[in-house]
From TrEMBL:
GO terms for molecular function: acetylcholine receptor inhibitor activity. Keywords: Disulfide bond, Signal. The keyword Repeat does not apply. PANTHER family: CD59 GLYCOPROTEIN (PTHR10036), LY6_PLAUR DOMAIN-CONTAINING PROTEIN 1 (PTHR10036:SF7). This is LY6/PLAUR domain containing 1. The keyword Disulfide bond applies. InterPro entries: Snake_toxin-like_sf. GO terms for cellular component: synapse. GO terms for biological process: acetylcholine receptor signaling pathway. The lineage of its organism: Eukaryota, Metazoa, Chordata, Craniata, Vertebrata.
Length: 124
């Protein structure tokens, strides 16, 4: 196809929400088609890790970490979205349905088993 798709995302590893213009990056054309946002709750506060991602890797990570997304200490939440700069700050005004699209992956028992195997190979 002649269309080259490129998305912009925020990219950083910070102890505060790094949603300012200096953290905007151009993602790799036709490869990194999503923005990823990781929110970690640690003893010294909330940590953010933001980046470009491929949809496959991001969706696997977000579903694999879903059980650890508690909002409490040591919580890890990973979200994926596919609109420009969607891993930025939360909208404080009235919610706009198109502003942040969270993709829900279907719950398939066989898939989740494969995801656990895949994740364990990444983590080891």
């Amino acid at each position: 196809s002649g269309l080259a798709l490129q998305i912009q995302c925020y990219q950083c590893e910070m102890t505060h929400d790094c949603s300012t213009p200096e953290f905007i990056v151009n993602c790799t054309v036709n490869v990194q088609d999503m923005c990823q946002k990781e929110v970690l709750v640690k003893e010294d506060g909330v940590h953010y890790r933001k980046s470009c991602a491929s949809s496959g890797a991001c969706l696997i990570a977000s579903s694999g970490y879903q059980q650890f997304c508690t909002g409490k200490l040591n919580s890890v939440c990973i979200s994926c979205c596919n609109t420009p700069l969607c891993n930025g700050p939360r909208q404080k005004k009235r919610p706009q349905p198109s502003a942040a699209i969270t993709l829900n992956t279907p719950r398939l028992p066989v898939l989740s088993f494969n995801i656990i195997i895949l994740l364990s190979s990444f983590l080891c």
